[in-house]
Design brief:
The protein is of the alpha+beta class. It has a single domain, classed as Nucleoside Triphosphate Pyrophosphohydrolase (Alpha-Beta Complex), CATH 3.90.79. The protein has five helices and eight strands. It starts with 9 loop residues before the first strand and ends with a helix.
Length: 173
Amino acid sequence: MKKPKRCDHTSVGILVKKRNQRLLIERRGSNFGIAAPAGHQDGQSPAAAARKELKEEVGLAARKLVARLKIKLNNPCRRTNNQFHVWTVFEAARWQGRVKRSKDETKRYFWASPRAVKSLADKLERFARAQRIPLAQKNLRKLQMTANRSRVWKKNPGLEPPMYFLFKELGII
């Protein structure tokens, strides 16, 4: 059995737009939910990791990345030593290629309108209320762990909890 990697506490997210729509993926493993392409830096610079994750998860090549946000969130991951992540979020201002999802990491991809993104955020808000978990960054760890254990959430997820807070900070929702 493969030993889990140790978390380096650094993650990147990549925002990809086509016209008025955002590229989103549904994750295959934990953390369950709908998200922008994202992943750990694993010792790389934020920009190098963003390029790698974009290529790995959806087959696109980032030609120009613009840093949009750096923030610490207390979100867990499947790795060991996973108490928090310092996120760097980029906008892929120029990209090329055709979307080709990673069959290992993603169930599906889709282009989401602002209304669809809001609907996914609303779904997370309803889930949090149903679980009696106030939707606040200080509760992110509990919310993510609850979502990861929920069969209902796994079957029909909304916006992944960390992505919810990143999108809030960025003014996307």
